[in-house]
Amino acid sequence: MNLFTNLYLSLDQTNKTNEKVAAMRDYFRKARPEDAAWALYFLSGNKPRQIVPSRRLRELATELAGIPDWMYEECRNTVGDSAETISLLLSEGGNKNDLPFNELVRDHLLPLRGADEEVQKAVIGKFWTDLDRAGIFVLNKLISGAFRVGVSQKLVMRAIAEEFGLPVDIVALRMMGNWEPTAEFFRTLTDANLEDEAPIARPYPFHLAYPIEDDLSKLGSLKDWQIEWKYDGIRCQVIKREGEVFLWSRGEDLINDSFPEIVAAAEELPDGTVLDGEILPFRHGRILQFQDLQKRLNRKKLTDKLLAKIPVILQTYDILESGTEDIRQKPLASRREVLEEIAGVEGTIRITEPLRSASWEKLDELRDESRSHGVEGFMLKRFDSPYRVGRQRGDWWKWKIDPFTVDAVLIYAQKGSGRRANLFTDYTFAVWNDDKLVTFAKAYSGLTDEEIRRVDRFVRDNTRETFGPVRSVEPVQVFEIAFEGIQRSKRHKSGVAVRFPRIHRWREDKKPEEADSIETIHALLEEYEPEANR
Prior knowledge:
Structural class: alpha+beta
Distance between the termini: 53 Å
Largest sheet: 7 strands, mixed
Number of strands: 22
């Protein structure tokens, strides 16, 4: 338990990628396989359902600490995290219990779900008495189902790969699908002497585009460029080798299970083919919204109803391997000719059709139509460009449309977490519906550190009511909120949900009555939403 606790604290106390990887490598080097398997399980984003209800943990903590409920709530509101609050309220036990991590989870924590309350009290109370403050904190995270730490599955795979001398794609392949956190699984995962099972599945590094920064005229003649719509989907390489099909996302995830219709279509490709493209939700001849596509991800099973409601296509725009030959160094124009031989403009796998324009000025006008086509703008690719590795300037550019923006009023604030646990950094904004403000969106990013401190002071000085950790404030501050997409939602009072909301700027020059109205929001919805979704 101590080794895992130290790992959690190391990851929680840094935002530097290399330090996170180093901490995980150190843990996996020292941990026994049976413990490392459970650590991998949690670090990869898996977690069992809540073992003990939060209410029960709060009751046990107040009883052991000998404090009333109201005092616990005040402490919780100040700290901003229940697990940390309990660890601070309880006396340290001097770390008298260092159970192996797998035994702690398997034999003590998981059996608590559904157990008698007296059993829960006895087991949790004993751990709280025996563990030090850090151990109590991490234990509470595991029990409450709120275990989160700032690492992605990709970063965990990188740490495993580096520590055990394996390519990342082999680690990803071995972690594909459902797996049990056992010592046997971890040994197999990290065995560098096993036969390399990944070559037929291995994707190529993705070529990434830079955003346009200069005047378009500096790109030279328009005739030198292939112009494509920039699609808002999931970037994907489709691999057909030795009769098997693999779908890799840009995040190095194997996503075969999420998109069986693309797998089925790819089985008809010539063997030794690798395509690069974008998975898009597509129905009745129209691209649906990205939020629809997200409903297909990370599901154990896709129902027939979901498949029918959110069908997908692969909009392919490049070919990297043909007849088992790596053709990435051939110019784009040549690769395009090969691609046209195997992909048409219809079907589940279809080719992107280049756009034509008489001038850069006319192309700029066409860009204004992007949202009506369900796209984000343009991709500009030089005809003579090879398929490079990573993000490099010069050959591929992305020219996105500007985000939507709305002026909204700050009405609620809540403290953040981690290093911002004592600052109000999580905000709720509203727009006008006649003479009333209705909740529109939440945003957590976009302000400078100095602006965050100023907003924090405003919240503390202008609180109207307190609802647990949330404070309502005087509705006088206006902020410009930017977002990428908008869709109808029955769960939101405004009737809409927005994608990637963030604070664009603090409009201290505006009075609250100058903020936008719900009618403005619905007008944006009509502009953005495909007719097929209305």
